[in-house]
Please model this.
Amino acid sequence: MATKKLFSDLPFNEDAEKAVLGSALLSNEALYSILASLQEDDFYVIKNRIIFRAIANLFNKKTAVDTLTVTEELMNMKELEAVGGVDYLRQCCDAMVSLASLDFYINIVNDQAVLRKLILAARRINDDYSEKEIDDVNDFILKSEESIKDATARRRISSFKRTDNLAKELAVRMNTPIAVGEDNCTGLTTGYPSLNKITGGLHAGDMIIVAARPSVGKTALAMNIAYKAASHTNKPVAIFSLEMSCEQLMDRLLGIASSVKLSDIKTRRFMSDRDRAKINATINELSQLPIYIDDTSSIKLMDILANSRKLQAEHPDLGLIIVDYLGLVTTESSKGGDSRQEEVRKISLALKSLAKELKVPVIAVSQLSRNVEQRGENKRPMLSDLRDSGSIEQDADVVMLLYREDYYKNQKSDKQLGEKKLKDMNNSERFEAMKKTNEMAKGQQFAGDASLVEVDVAKNRNGQTGKTPLFFYKAYGRFDQPSREWVEQMKAIDEGNE
Model:
């Protein structure tokens, strides 16, 4: 069947479009397959688009679809005459094909639609190049790549897979040992054994949300994970930083790796010879790490997607992508009519799709709403506190909520803490009380303005949930796993031995 060109040089196949519509009018089985595979703009001939719209309207209203009901719907739409009346519907019915051949005709319609979109995208790229001033060549290339990808996104029609074939693949997987990394995690290590125990590591295809109120430590934790993942596995890590510059992030990495105060790194004053030696050694270490930073403050979602794909093309072993933070990412439609909630929904879905497409874990840093502050005594965050859109919780595979007792100004006074027994305190209260009285577990270092951060894995689509404490040295921007002595001391207190 030859491809026709009618009133345009764009490719389409009118006979295939009529055959598909006729099949939908006469067969429910065909109708379900067609509606699951095609969209209105996949039809090139205007009257075929209108008929498909009428069919879809009836289906959405749970009304029977046949020649009579479609005729009535077209009359209600004031479009019956525009499509050629009942005579044209009869022509479509005469073009009906068997169910065995239907997929072939659906593929023809889909392929022609993709070719049209690809040609139009190429023409728009050419027009933009010819008619508009190009301020940034790289930006122009990225946008062109994204428009081509959008045009060809539906070039493959999804279909079901039978369990007999899937079972064969399952048997192969079950007989292939999974590579287990440090701390027995099956994904990319977070660098923290207790967190790995809950999550199993960061898994390919997962979107992980790290959320907290401002200044609690969410960016710091993301940077610690980036450093540990790159240094432990030597896999490339991509960081999109919309809030901090490359220089600021490098300062943070330097503080994490060297345990030199960030204030000293920033001012470069009051450093001892020992600190300077540590800094020089750490700079040499950081220079060897495969960490890639994009600090474009106004970066669009499209650029994040394109740059991630480009980096993986250059480095197929890309291990992790971090976006800091979700609230600053915008889309091309930001200046349009979309609400911020709708925009965040699109961003969240796109980052999840990116993780799945590249088979790489994506960490998105997110801010919690002010609802946390309005609670009474217990200000621990919940999934419902995720800001801007419920789709973040829905799309995420893993959600980590951070809580820090000393963050809140209205925390219990020293006197109140002194009146309570350690056994009656939570871990955060014990940490503050014991730090003030210098009664921390032997061997644990608490310089660097230490705090206890509770990491609550509140959602884990493919594993367990739970909470784990981490020590946060704010002066260095570093997170550490609590010492064994600390864990044992807390256990002893809970069991009433102290």
